[in-house]
Structure formats: structure tokens, C-alpha cells
Records
---
Amino acid sequence: MQGFISLFQAAVFFGTVIMFGCIGEIITEKAGNLNLGVPGIMYLGGISSLAAVFIYEGSTDTPSSAVCVLLALLASFAGASFGGLIYAFLTITLRANQNVTGLALSIFGSGVANFFGGSLNTLAGRFEQISVPVTSAAFRQNIAPLANMGIIGKLFFSYGFMVYLAVILAIVTQLFMQHTMTGLNLRTVGENPQAADAAGINVTAHKYLAICIGAGICGFGGVYYVMDYIKGTWANDGSIEKLGWLSVALVIFATWKAKNAIWGAYLFGVLYWMYLYIPGLTRASQEIFKMLPYVVTIVVLVFTSLTNSREKQPPAALGQSYFREER
Amino acid sequence: MSEAVISLRNVSKSFGSVHANENVSMDIYKGEILSLLGENGSGKTTLMNMLSGIYYPDHGEIKVNGKVVNIRDPKDAFDCGIGMVHQHFKLVDVFSAAENVVIGIKREHGLDLRGVSNDIRKICDKYGFVMDPAKKVYDMSVSEKQTLEIIKVIYRGADILILDEPTAVLTPQETEKLFDVIRNMKKDGKTVIIITHKLHEVLSISDRVAILRKGEYVDSIETRDATEERLTEMMVGEKVELNIERPEIKEKKIRLRVSHLSCYNSDGLKVLEDVSFDAYGGEILGVAGVSGNGQKELLESVAGLQNSMPGASIKYYSPDDDKEYELIGLTPRKIRQLGVHLSFVPEDRLGMGLVGSMGMSDNMMLKDYNEGRSIFTDKKKPRELAEQILNDLNVVTPGLSTPVRRLSGGNVQKVLVGREISASPAVLMTAYAVRGLDINTSYTIYRLLNEQKKAGVAVIYVGEDLDVLMELCDRILVLCSGRVNGILDGRSAKKEEIGRLMTLVSAGKEKR
């Protein structure tokens, strides 16, 4: 039982990071842009929030938790959206190849973040390891009375607020896409920009907004990773990157529907951490288990292709740039 | 005459060095049905795209209802009451009809699909459409998609409708229905501009005809004063002989014998049922039928691109060695080498025949990919061939290396047909070779096919226009639901007879 609870909790921590990435990427892809820069954007979101709260916590003797949380979220959203803006400018305005631009952004984001992460560690001084205790504590604050309700409390209420925020965001995104005019227009842009244009929808504006907001949400994944997952410090080990790619895989797994991202993210978490709970694994066989999320994604791809369901396909114009006067 | 709803003054638009429209000045009057006529690449679509906000004129002035307007994007066009149904439908496949209608509109009640569906039903009742608002676009037929596009435009409150080649993909029956709808719109006070190549349609539907030639406005005439010859002359700028030649070839040798051919499509539906026929060198065998009744599968079976049911046989009699070959079981490449050439013109021209982003010369090389001996490509021969086609068929292109997708539909077609003919086949199969082409180009294609026929080639011509089939073909095979309903003599066949066989589904099945 103990093992099950800790696996479940580990899956939720893990799943929350990639759920943010996945929601952001779904919004981006629904606008017809495949942004492979998710890992880089998560890095940018993470480092921006860390730098902002580090400066704030250092500047005052009594940092307020609320300000810390707000500052972290705003900074990460700004930093990550900036990454999205670079991508949007290159792919929409300059019509650069989306795959190449996204990959470049991944490398750029991780480079920038690790450079400043290293610098922050140096600034932090004698321990050579940065820490933002107030912010991290605020992010990890669970729902106190509920969290103590035995097993139920441990399973469902022992997490920081970002875990619930991710689920709410996924539901809101789903409703937005399916039941609002703006959501319908956005999906039109991703499915058939010519049709959108002819219907009087501003394709460029929709794409820019979707990419920047999508990137901002991806950035929350970075915040959650830095503040909660690794408890308010910086690690140059490239693990955000791994999670970023898994978010992209999760988009495919979720068949571009935000509601599926919720359970998909936790399932990926379970699959990823399962190796710790299976006795008798060697280092080599552990690695095979770590591949499971990817294997599952491939299986899902195979099945969605076989069933040939039109509803489960990526947006039809995904990856194509749009220029009205092209003949 | 009533007042002009749209006045164009000196409107010009060029793409790079190509002038699509030059100093076009014309008026469109309220409540009329105007046909816009012109050859391929004469700038009809470009001109209309400037009214609908897809393109922005380089210079010139557009007045709507007497006011100078600046149509920068489709939204501005809707605000002026102008709506366009494009030749390539602008619909989202995975959306329902109602969702497609409502996209891009600012609504008070948000996304209220029930309300939209009711509005769609009202429009349908008013003008005589049939449309289920909940149906997904990917489940729709071509004519349903077109209906949806028209509903979309009316829903946005357009008073001026532009229809770009609306009948190109419709059956004669569907075209009649569309024309009824257009007449209903006229009764309702709407102005309709229709772009089409088909002269008899121009004469039957429109009040007035405006003619463009090489991007310039020529003139307009009242339809009651127009004849096919007069219109063609204005369009081409010179007199064109509107008779299709049908030379009689004495010596006919059998080239192809298809017997008991049956096929299933990917959905498991029977698309060809027990098809048998012969094709002779020195004749054009026409294949008539409502599109989608097995024509595509028939040609593809001969070309080796379809799997057929056991029991079928396709015998090919080679002119080189007088031997007979069984084509079933051979690879498409082997079949091509034997001399059976398929020039297939699907709705998407660039889908199967040419590579859109490559130039003419490179496209010439595609079929001979396995011929070269050296590791480097030999560009000289394909370039010569491309030049020859360019000159023979008057292809309009900025250059041999210009990507073919930038050419207009008619020119793409010429490149494709030119290349297939150049391979000097023994059997030449063409499907919808003149679809969407103007008169002049169509006649060029007919002339080319006749040349092939005279050279002893067995030509199989899948066509839509019954008048052309009856003038061009020696024999006409009528397909319906994948069955051969009859093979008629082209010289004596009656249009009514062919039409009856084309739609004879149940009767044919009962007989057997």
C-alpha cells in the first residue's frame, strides 16, 4: 500500500510538469504550429521564475509568500512567452520551417537557462547551490486539513496548488476549444488557414496569441519543476528537457484533446516511475522501463492510424506556414 | 438599366513579373446574373479575389454601391455584402456544417450551434437547398460541400455572390439544381457573378456576359445577343473552329481486351463489376458516366494500380512484337514499359501526375527515373522535351524551372498531357483531360488525342461532357455503379440514350 501511494504521488508530481507542457503545446498546435521548442520554453519559464524570486527574496528580510508565488508565475509566463514570441515571429512572419525553428529554440532555451542557472548558483555564494526557501515552501504548501485524511488525503490532497491548477487549466482549455467562438476560430486556423482567412478570421493574430499563451503555459511546467519538483533550486542535469519532450509525446497520446492530457500525464508518470517499484531490476533493465511512455505513445499512434478516425488526427494544417497571396 | 452595385476602375494586379489583371474597368449591376468568361489564366479568379479580399489590388479603385471601398481582407468584403465561393472549397473537414458556417462571425450568444442550425434550415427552405447542419464535411459529397459554401456566404448576409467555376465538379443534374438556386437568389434581389468555362451554361443561366482576355477586360454583351461562336471569338480574340475532328481510321488492331474485371475499394465496396470491353488502336474509346462510378478504378486497374478480383483478365496486344501480355499481376512499371500510359487528372491535378514544387523540366524526368546510366542526371533531354511541350501547347510559364504549382490549372494540365503523349504510348488513357480547361486549351487537347489516334494509338478518354464525347469518340462505353451499361457507336448515339444508361442502376441489376 505504501508503495502504491508513493508511486501515485510520484506520478502526480511528474505528470503535473508534463501536463502544463502538454496543454500549452495543444493550444499551439491547434493554431497549426508545431512548436518543438517545449523543452527550451520550459527551461526559460523555470529560470525566469527562479531568477525573479531569488532577487526578491534576497532584497527583503521578510519575503511574502503571496508575492513570491505571483512573481514566480508572472516571471515564468513572461520568460516563456518571450520564447514563444521568438518562435512565432520566425515561423509566422518570416515563415521559417517550424521543425527547425522549434528544435533551435529547444537548444537556445536550455543554453540560456543553464547559463543563468549556473550564474545564479555562483551568486548564491558559499553553498554554491541556489535556494529560494520561501517561494518553494509556498509552492509546496498542501491543503492542510484535507491532506491529513489518511489515504485519501495522501492520494489527492497532499500536493501544492500547481497540481490542481494544471487540472483546472486542462478542463478550461477543453471547454474553450469545444464551446467558445474563439476556440472554434482558433481550431479553424489550425485546420485550414485559407478557410479561416476567407471567413474573416485574422490568422496571424490568432497564431501569435495561441503560440505566446501556449508557451506561457508550458513555462508553468518549468516553474512547477523548479519550485516543487526539485524544491526551489537549480540543476544543470537536463532533466527539464526530458520532461519537455515527454510533453510533446503526450500531445499525440492525448490526440490533441486537453481532457485526455489529465489522465495521460498521470499515466506517463506511473509508467516512468514504475521501475522503482518493480523488484529485481538491474540498471540496464530500468532503462527499458523508462522508455514505456514513449512506447505507449507509439502504440497510440499505431492505433489511431489504424482506426482511421478523422477526429483523432492532428490539425490538418499543422506545420505549414500560411501566406495569403501564394498561388 | 439599374444602378451599378460594383464599379471597378483601372484595377491592376501582378504576381512578380506576371500581370494577372491590367487596368480592368467594368460595372456589375444590381440583381443581375453576370457570367465572367475568359480562358485559363485570363485573370477572372484574380479579379474576383480582389473583390473578396483575398488579394489587394496594386492600383485602381473599387466602388460598392457608389462608395469607394478599400477591401483589405475577407472581413471587409463581407461588410460590403460581397461573398465568394472559391473553386477550392474553404471548409474544415472535421467540423460539422453548422460549425463551418459560423466560423469567424462575432455572435452575441457565443457558440450556439442550435441557433445556427435553425438559421441554416431557414436559408435552405428559402432557396431550395438540402443540408443537414450536423453532418461533418468529410462525409459530404462535392456538391454538398458546394451547397455548404453557398449557405456560408448567404448566412453572412452577402448580397453579391461570386461563384468561381461552381459547375466544374457537378453532374448535369446537380448543375440544374444549382442553377435553380441561383435563379431563386436573383428573385430575392441578389446579384450573382459566376465564373465558368462552359458556354452552354453561360447562355442558359446569365443575363449578361463579361469577357476577360489576358488579364484585360474586353467587353460585355447581353446574353440574349450572344452565341457560342461570338463568345469564343471575343474570348480568344480570333475565330475558332468549334468542330471536333473525328477521322475514320480504316485499319484497327486490337490493343487491349479487358474481361470480367471486378474491384473493391478500400472501404470494401464493389466499385467495378464484371467489366469487359476491347480497345482498338486507331480509335478513341469514350467512357461516359457520372463521376465516381468506377472510371478511376477502371483506368487504374489497367495501369496496375488497383487490385482486382480473381477471374479477371486484361490482355494487352503489343504492336512491337505482336505478342499478347496478361497485365494483371505485372507491376505498374512493367506495364508502362509495355506502352500502356495513364494520364490521370484527378480533382487535385498535382496529386498524382506532377510534383508541384519542381519545374517543368524536372517533371519531365520523373517517369524515366530508372533510365540513366551515370550517377549524374542528364538534364538536357528533359529540358528539350519541356521546351517542345512549351511551344507546341502554348504553356504560359515564367520559365522551365518555375515550380509547376505556380502555373494556372490549364497550363499544369498541358504539361501533364504533353509529357504522357511524348512517351509514344500504344494505349493512352486520359481521365477528365479537359476538366477546368477553357475552350481553346480543350480543343488543343482534342487535337492531340486525334493525332495519337491517327498514329495508331488506342486512346481511352474518360469524359464528362456528353456533347464532346459524342463528337470525339468512335465508341462510347457507359459506366454506372461500376457496371458497363452499354457500348454505343459514337456516330449514331443519342444523348438521351447515353443519359439513360448513365443512370440505369436498378434496372441493370434486375435484368441479371
Note: Chain B touches chain A through 32 residues (CB under 8 Å).
---
Amino acid sequence: MMEYALILVSTVLVNNFVLVKFLGLCPFMGVSRKLETATGMALATTFVLTLSSISSYLVNEYLLTPFGLEYLRTISFILVIAVVVQFTEMLVHKTSPLLYQVLGIFLPLITTNCAVLGVALLNVQTEHGFIESALYGFGAALGFSLVLILFAAMRERLAVADVPEIFRGPSIALITAGLMSMAFMGFAGLVRG
Amino acid sequence: MNLSLHSSPHMRTSNRVNRIMLLVIGALIPGILAAIHFFGWGVLINITLAVFTAVATEALMLRLRKRPITPFLLDGSAVVTGILLGVAIPSLAPWWIPVLGAAFALIMAKHLYGGLGYNPFNPAMVGYAMLLIAFPREMTLWLTPAVHDLTFVDNLRYTFLEQLPPNWTLDGLTAATPLDAVKTQLAQNLTLTEIHQGSTELFGAISAHGWEWINLLFMLGGLILIYLRVISWHIPLAMLATLFLVSGLFHLNDPDTFTSPLFHLFSGATMLGAFFIATDPVTAAATNRGRIIFGIGIGLLLYIIRTWGGYPDAVAFAVLLMNMAVPTIDYYTRPRVFGESRD
């Protein structure tokens, strides 16, 4: 039980995928201009990340390893992720057309979110079991969502701040992300390893 | 509801930014005097360097941004940032530590965001966290409280030339802060009782030796600020109560591995953080409900990082992390507009 809790704390705070591992920066910068879009993106990514983490574990464990096809790992994971994203897209389209419209191009772009592939590959590298993989993916997604939502709320404020001309837009957003990353270094050492 | 209308003349007060900042500086003085007493002239040297750099950087940035210099400089916010950073830096730091920290704080955390009123992060804490991450060795050179007799000139020589008087060594002068020492020894599987017996010089009457006085005097200054309505009670109370409750629960449960609530309240930067840093009106939450959430968050993060994290004290990180959450907190604690439905 304790080790599962540690996986969650580690992925959400200590090794946050965005602010500490610097993965998934494209949606972090791209979909953080408004809080509502960011919340939708966070939900969609959480769903995709958890599901793709589980399915890539299954593919690796029951297809790739038994047949000695480990060299196909990256490409098959990309395929698995693309399928999961497509599934999510259909689901969102049916259940919430509004969210579908708001997310627009960013929904299919979850496929290229490096955090998703990163989680799948790191799961194999650290030899996680089934539950660990699921928790690792879920924790990574929680950390991503947390940071994305906080960042979006901050950016809504930055939009009305008297930022010097040359720093408006992406540059002040990147500086903010850097300062956030610095604050997250306070969690270093909370979980060993 | 009392809607009586008062006819003129109305009494006016001058609640301007510079009055607030002057009161804050005044309330900091007792704590700073205690810090000078325990940690020597270095505290004063650090504050002077940090304030000077902060004001100079502020002027430079205002000039670059083509804003009027004098009115913004006279509001005193740069001075307060400089003082807070100077107090937080160990007294035996080389001169470039406060200078670098203050310049970084003013440029990156304040003026790139548009100056006073727009900065999402507390500038002094951004400067401090940057120094702590980038120069861990220089940021741990704390003097042993009140046992040294380093003169003003000696300290000045060390700050600028990094030369100590002959026969003196850094190891002989400095010691780990009580928070740091207790943490290290707990990691070596010693119990708190053993630590108390083994290193009595660390502990004072109620908490850590030396630090307890600094914290008490900062608390006094903070209470005066609350009495004068410069800061509201919500954030300090929420933060200190959370820290007290959480550390109390863990301490009661296992008094040999978790330090007492009093030790947490009166050591490190707790009181300075609760009354002077977390209450910064620009970077803290705006509503009273939001302020309580903000304070609770700082208290919790402070305890978590101090107890299980890699850093011995965590006021800067806890404040920065909660600064990050402030826009979200404000978004969800917006007061309901009259007539708006409850959901």
C-alpha cells in the first residue's frame, strides 16, 4: 500500500512530468491560455494517459516480450497511444460536443504529447507491474493536470498584467513556467529514488 | 443592514503604499535586532547589500521600462524585498550572494511581470529559492548563535574578501541550524531524546536556541501589524494553526521521531514567513476564504517538506508553491455577486 502511495506522490509532485522531467511541454504551453480549455485538456489527458499506460503495459507484457519483439517497443507504443487517443476523441465527440469543439486540434495532438509515450517507456524501464503501471500513468496525468490548471489560471492574470512589450505572450509564460519549476524543486528528496 | 449616509466632513487617512511599507519595515526591526544579536553584523551587512541592490535594480528597470522613477522608488516596496531577502540569507555569505539574489528577485520576479501589483511570485522568496538551489554551500554558512565574537570589521572582510582572522576557520564558526541538525540526526536513526541529550546547545527554553527569540520578536512585529490593520489575521493564523495541529498530531503519535509543535513554530523562518512573507498583499489570495486556504496550504507544505523533504526549512518553497495556486484559489473563492445563483 505504502509503495503505491509513494508512486503517486513521486509522479505528482517530486518527479512532476512537466516541471521536473520537462515532458509534455507542448500542451502545457499550447492549451493554457484559458482555464476552461485547460481543465478539459487535463481531463482528456488524464483519461488517455491512464488508459495508454495500462494498454502499453499489456502489449509489452503479453505481445512483445513473449515473442521477443522488444525492438518494436517504441513504434507499437505509438500505435497503442494513437488508438487510445482516437477512442477518446470519439468518446468526447459523442458525450460532450462542446468540449470537443473547445479542445479542437489539441485532442488528436495528445498522440504527440511526449509525456504519454514517456510514461509508457518509463514503465517498461522501471519494470513496473500492472497496478504500478496504471498508478504511474494516473499519477503522471494528475501531476500534469494540476500544473496545467494552476498555470492556466496564472496566465489569465498575466494577460492583463503590465508586462514589458518584448516579454508579452510566450516569453513571460516560459519564465513563469521556469519559476514554477524552481518552486517544485522544494519537493526534491521527498521520495527516495 | 445599516445604510446610513454620513454627511461631510469625512475623516481622511493616508493609507498609501509607502505608509504600509514603512510600517512593515518598522515591525521588522525588533526581529532584525535579535538576528544581529545572535548572528552578528553579517545580518546588517546582508540587509544593506540586498536593499541597495534592490533599489538600484528597481531604478534601472523602471528606466528601461520608461516608467516614472521617483514615485515608484519612494513606495518602498523594493526596500522591503531587500530587507526580507537580507534577513533570510546566512550572515557569513559572500557579498555577491545578497547582490545576486536581490537583482534576480527584482528583475525576474517583479519587473518582467510589470512591477508592483502584477508579480505572481513573492520576489524576495524567488531570490532566496534561486540562491538556495544554485549556491547550497554558501546558503548554509550560519554562525553558531551568540558564541562567536566576530567584530564588524572581521565580518566585513569576510563578506568582501572571504578572509577570516588568523586561527579562525569556517568550520569552527559555523554550525548547522537546529532544523538542519535535528533532521540530519533523525536520519541517522537517533531518537529525539538522544538528540536533546547529545546536543544541548541546539535547544533553548521553548524551541531552538537563539532562533526562538528571533521568531518571538518577528511574531511581536507581526501582531502589531495585525493590530494596525496593515495585514489581516487570516493567513498567519491559518498557517500557524495548521503547522501547530499537524506537527502536534505527529508529535503526540510518536514523540521520538517527530519534533514538537513549539520547535516548529519558533525555529527557522516560521514567524517571518507567517507574518511578513505569506501576507504580501500582491502575491497572497485576495478573499478571506481564499486567504485561509492559502495559509493552510503553506502550513501543510512547510511541515511536509521540513519533515520528509530534502531541505531543512521550507518557508520559501511553501510560499512559492502556494503563490502558484493563488489565481486558482481566487477563481474558486470569488464572492458571489448579489443575486447570482448559488451554483
Note: DSSP finds nine helices and no strands in chain A.
